[in-house]
Specification:
Rossmann fold; 3 domains; binds NADPH dihydro-nicotinamide-adenine-dinucleotide phosphate; seven-stranded mixed sheet; single chain; about 50% helix; five-stranded mixed sheet; 12 strands; alpha/beta
Length: about 450
């Protein structure tokens, strides 16, 4: 059987065993379709069924999260933690609170996390968790009661040497605070290393808040440099207006690019003079409002409800909102408008059709696994600081992040060349991450 046929049969088995989990199937397919050349070079991976084992989570936890809203009504949500792979270290990966969350979303994110974490070169396994809880419009008290109930069950599955969650969509510094407080109370341990993304006043790392957005920009900068180009003077689009988007905009501006648009799930802001980051931060980080309010502060900007941000002409596009937000039509529009680079701050934001368009056009395309790995890498730096009871400066931590992103770019670039797909960062990222995990799993015997 050829490597391709063997891989297709593994994929069909994954689809059969995990019915209805479309995003998980998509994430698995995207990795598996690049692994053919690795199986040819390493027949021992097939013999020991490494791919089949990696596609099966080590443990999946699903639990009830009951809580009381401000009107005294009982609410019930569902909590998830999928501990996918711990070959390289304790499980590590964020928590997402969003109404769209179900097992298929958490599994796609957990699966991607395995390879992303391996790619950082740091000792962390892969996991993801979350809930279908919608924090939008909820009071601080409601969010606190939800987080306390969520952690009341989850705490027994966590630990600094076991599983270390962080934030993701809908989980920022406020939620991490409530979750950590409840963990500390239940366990009677001040175990700083059990969660990352903490406030720097009580064990968090400087630069963690900025890390995913900054890292994505460092990655796109490296891709452009590899082609003899730079970010200076480039017009950019950044979708979303949450944690990743805000700090991607900040770093793009620092590096001399101009960001003309950002968005939320309701619409798009187009500000040809350049987005006022101060206004976005005030609206999103402090007031927790919709991005449509931006035009009240910047009357020259335009708000387009329900529009696609990708219709706006740009040189560089950074999807930083959510999965499958950039489809084939949008990708064609970007290419037709002269876009030269796309780097994914979000996880799996480009559909398979969109990726094909970028590959055919041979523009620089950085998949989330590589481009947004700066977030989890800085979480690992937070764990290091917690373990050594130390706190590093902003400048030092950012330097470490920058070096990590350069290394990730270099590893992807070299692996893509070695396996016959020069310039293809998906191939480079998948193969580099996979090989690291596969080698550890082989060394451990049948696990
Ligand atoms: P936030 O919750 O801070 O922000 C999410 C942003 O995306 C908001 O502007 C939100 O708009 C928008 N968004 C969410 N869902 C949708 C949707 N269905 N359609 C359109 N827009 C949507 O999350 P983050 O910034 O932390 O995460 C963004 C992406 O980055 C996710 O894919 C996440 O997995 C990924 N990521 C995050 C990391 C981190 O460190 N935070 C690390 C690596 C990846 P609205 O307010 O209207 O919902």
């Amino acid at each position: 059987m050829s490597a391709e046929t063997a891989i297709e049969s593994i994929f069909q088995q994954v689809v059969r065993r995990n019915p209805g989990e479309d995003e998980f199937h998509q994430a698995v397919h995207e990795v598996l379709e690049t692994l053919g050349p690795v199986l040819v070079k390493h027949p021992e991976y097939a013999e020991h069924k490494i791919i089949e084992r990696i596609c099966e989570p080590e443990r999946q936890i699903i639990f009830r999260v009951p809580w009381q809203d401000d009107n005294g009504h009982v609410q019930i949500n569902r909590g998830f933690r999928v501990q996918f792979n711990s070959a390289l270290g304790p499980y590590k990966g964020g928590l997402r609170f969003h109404p769209s969350v179900y097992l298929g979303i958490i599994k796609f994110l957990g699966f991607e996390q395995i390879f992303k974490n391996a790619l950082t070169g740091m000792p962390i396994g892969g996991a993801k968790g979350g809930s279908d809880f919608d924090p939008k419009g909820r009071s601080d008290g409601e969010v606190m009661r939800f987080c306390q109930s969520f952690m009341t069950e989850l705490h027994r599955h966590l630990g600094e040497y076991t599983d270390v969650p962080a934030g993701d969509i809908g989980v920022g510094a406020r939620e991490i605070g409530f979750l950590f407080g409840q963990y500390k109370r239940i366990t009677n341990r001040y175990e700083s290393g059990v969660l990352t993304g903490k406030n720097p006043h009580w064990g968090g790392s400087l630069v963690r808040r900025e890390a995913t957005g900054y890292g994505t920009v460092f990655f796109v900068d490296e891709m452009l440099r590899a082609r003899g180009q730079s970010l200076e003077g480039r017009t950019c689009l950044v979708s979303g207006s949450g944690n990743v988007a805000i700090y991607a905009i900040e770093k793009l501006e620092e590096l001399g690019a101009k960001v003309v648009a950002c968005s939320d799930s309701n619409g798009v802001i187009h500000d040809p003079d350049g987005i006022s980051l101060e206004t976005v931060k005030q609206l999103k980080e402090i007031e927790r409002r919709r991005i449509s309010d931006y035009i009240k502060h910047r009357p020259r900007a335009k708000y387009h409800a329900g529009a696609s941000i990708w219709d706006i002409p740009c040189d560089v596009a950074l999807p930083c909102a959510t999965q499958n937000e950039l489809g084939e039509t949008a990708a064609r529009r970007l290419v037709a408008n002269g876009c030269i680079a796309v780097a994914e701050g979000a996880n799996m934001p480009t559909t398979p059709g969109g990726i094909r368009v970028f590959e055919e056009a041979r523009i620089a395309y950085g998949p989330g696994k590589a481009a947004n790995a700066g977030g989890v890498a800085t979480s690992a730096l937070e764990m290091q600081q917690n373990a050594s009871r130390d706190a590093w400066t902003f400048e030092y931590t950012e330097k470490r992040l920058h070096a990590i992103m350069r290394d990730i770019h270099g590893r992807c670039f070299e692996a893509a060349e070695e396996f016959g797909s020069p310039g293809n960062y998906i191939v480079g990222a998948n193969i580099t991450g996979f090989r690291r995990v596969a080698e550890a799993m082989l060394a451990f015997g049948l696990i």
